[in-house]
Amino acid sequence: MSSPPPPRPTKSRPLGGLGNVCDGEKTIIALIPDGQRLLVTLSFSPTFWFYIPYQPEQIDSIEFTINSFDEKTQIYRSRIEAPSTSGVIGLQLPPSVKLETNQTYYWYFQLNCKRKQGKPISEKVEGHVSVLPPTPERVNMVERMDSKIVYDALTIAADRRSKKLPGAEQDWQRLLNSLGKGNLATEPILPLRMLPKEN
Questions:
Q1: How would residue 151 be classed by pLDDT, with cut points 50, 70 and 90?
Q2: How many other C-beta atoms lie within 10 A of the C-beta of residue 192?
Q3: Is the model's pLDDT at 63 over the cut of 90?
Q4: What residues contact 78, with CB distance under 8 A and at least 6 apart?
């Protein structure tokens, strides 16, 4: 069984200067580490985590896309309703979208901000996800919220924090620290969003 090929580096923050982002101080952020580390999940329909610093009246539209590793096939694409407030949000793929084991996919999250004049400004982050088959060792890593299986660890840690379980705040802080996103640990976690079918 072949291993997923090495991916290109992730971009957890939008590129460009302040003139190319919606706000002079904050931008959207993907809760993934930067660099070329392999980012994996054991789920066929994983959840992707983002920080959105804007209120709904500031947002024109949001779009999420998943492509095959060679970028020749679009696996999923949909517009997303803006959240009711700023915070960290999880976007779960609908059950109709099943990623394949031992495959790597590229995803793109784009937010377009409203402007008083001119065209909307776009912020875009991108990353990848590799689906690995579950093994007892990997399942144990997920249960321990090990950042090596980052998407599943984030989903469990966010759920525990939302439920205010004992130790959940510390686990969330530890996990985000390991991803280089510790400054977002005190941001509110918004209700998990099931992505719609493609539109």
A1: very high
A2: 15
A3: yes
A4: 63, 64, 195, 196, 197, 198, 199
For residue 17, pLDDT over 50 is answered with: no
Summarised one tens digit per residue, pLDDT across range 64-97 is: 999 999 999 999 999 999 999 999 999 999 999 9
- As a whole number of angstroms, the distance between CA 103 and CA 132 comes to 8
Assess contact for 64 and 48: CB atoms under 8 A: yes
Buried b (16+ CB within 10 A) or exposed e, 162-178: beeeeebeebbbebbeb
